[in-house]
Design a protein that fits this description.
This protein is an alpha+beta fold and 185 residues long. It has helices at 3-21, 163-184, and strands at 32-39, 42-43, 48-51, 56-58, 64-68, 72-77, 81-82, 89-91, 94-96, 98-105, 110-115, 129-131, 135-139, 144-145, 150-157. Strand 5 and strand 6 form a beta hairpin. The longest helix is centred in the C-terminal third of the chain and has 22 residues, at 163-184. It is elongated, with a radius of gyration of 23 Å.
Length: 185
């Protein structure tokens, strides 16, 4: 067995072990989230950052708790009021007149966000949700809420490529290079 063959066998073994031991991340758990309230054309509060772990967190104004799970965002309201209307804020595909912006770092790309049937905020519908690959914007301007109000969003996030996938591609390219080199000799 030549040195190149031994090297290729070792690389394949290592890549195979990596493929078995390193699962891809799918969903939001483990990502860093930034939650920020927007009103009347701009950010109204500082960003509250947290690691997504499924635990509910209150917002800085005490109107709701936000809980981010692997594939859901849940807003549970803690008081009663009507969200004011004002000038809108937009950035790319995101839009908020009065609401919450969630940004995610270290998460797979967000591919879809839908309104869950468990939501009960009167007047809140899919047109009030905008998103891009890294963020979800929720606009509840002009809507009423009370202590029983809940907004549940279902989030689809694609899997990040596994490190083992990169290793397998590297091994395959190395194997092709060795095979080409061998043919020339």
């Amino acid at each position: 067995m030549t040195f190149a063959s031994k090297l290729l066998a070792a690389a394949l073994t290592t890549a195979s072990l990596l493929a078995v031991s390193l699962p891809a991340q799918a969903g939001l758990i483990g990502a860093t989230a930034g939650s920020q309230y927007y009103f009347d054309g701009g950010a109204y509060s500082g960003v509250q950052s947290f690691t997504v772990d499924g635990v509910a967190r209150g917002n800085s104004f005490g109107y709701f708790d936000v809980q981010v799970k692997d594939n859901q965002v849940i807003y549970d309201y803690t008081g009663s009021a009507t969200w004011s209307t004002g000038a809108g804020w937009s950035s790319g595909s995101l839009y908020i007149e009065n609401g919450n912006l969630l940004n995610f770092l270290g998460a797979p790309n967000i591919t879809n966000v839908t309104l869950d049937a468990g939501s009960n905020m009167v007047g809140f519908n899919a047109s009030r949700i905008t998103f891009d690959a890294d963020s979800i914007a929720v606009n509840w301007a002009g809507l009423n809420f009370n202590g029983n109000t809940r907004v549940v969003l279902n989030v689809n996030a694609g899997a990040l490529p596994e490190p083992a996938s990169y290793a397998l591609v590297a091994v395959a390219l190395a194997g092709l290079g060795l095979a080409k080199r061998r043919r020339k000799a």
